[in-house]
Amino acid sequence: MEDNQVKKISDSVYEFCKPDNPSVEIIFFHGIQMGEEDVSELHLSTWTVKSEEADAPPEYWPQTFFAKDEHLTSKNISVRALTARYDPSKYKTHNTGRLDLYNIAENFTHSIIDNNRVNVGLREGVPVIMVGHSFGGLVMKKLVDQVAEKARLNGNHSKNLQKFLDNLKGLFYYSTPHLALKDEVFQRLFPPGKSYSDLPKLLEELNKGAGRLHAVLTTYAKGHKIMVNEAFDVNNTDLGDNLEPIQIVTEASAGCGAESKLAISEDHFNVCRPRDVKSSNYQALANFIVKIVEREKAKKNSDAAGLDLPEVGRRR
What we know:
By secondary structure, this protein is of the alpha/beta class. Helices cover about 40% and strands about 15% of the residues. It contains 10 helices and 8 strands. Strand 7 (about 225-235), helix 9 (about 250-255) and strand 8 (about 260-265) form a beta-alpha-beta unit. Helix 5 (about 135-155) packs across helix 8 (about 200-225).
């Protein structure tokens, strides 16, 4: 059930919270359907607080945690949080199962950056952080790659795209497979004998090109001083297929290229679902936010101070 406080900006973008003067803007990208779960609200349910109460109403932690986190509030850090929505279904129906990574990235180029109601990444001095769970991390990497290519080709006609790229300061992944999924994982996700959407074919293509996309984004992040962190699950995941739980993403694949990586004692579904603000899977992101905001403030203050430096060797 969708919480009425989560604002729908468009079919592709929802807003968890919007302070008047945000210190940072964060966009969340969900994963794909892995088991038999309902995926109609995956852009919201991915980011729910983990609760032991089965009947507890859903709480979306990007909506509530940032405002009550004393670590953030003590530093006057206010967060604007949005979540991206796209079709993650592995089964094709009359209105689902039409996932296309290129079209997703193309769509978000317009719905996130060029949409006047969203305007993410266009505020001077306000850093942008992208957060992705599992396949969502691949979506956001493809988005950055595509936006960078458009900005390069279109020059002055893509000022908003360049502003977004200039303000992009952090990529945070929750168990994203930067390297190819193992064959046994792929077979468990898509066992033969069922009618699927184009998702298996897409993932096969991603598996083949995962190394290239990862290399491109790693180089881009280093060149543009974009910080990269990852939290990954260490527990096996029950896919609801009456087989033994399995490790979806290996540690080597999850932590590939990250400046810092943190092991989380959860399964693949719950690695991004903290219990409270003290949970390590939330704190990893919160600390990442603080580090980026403080780095940008220090840079801004340094630049401002440089304007008042006396001229060296100036004649009196």
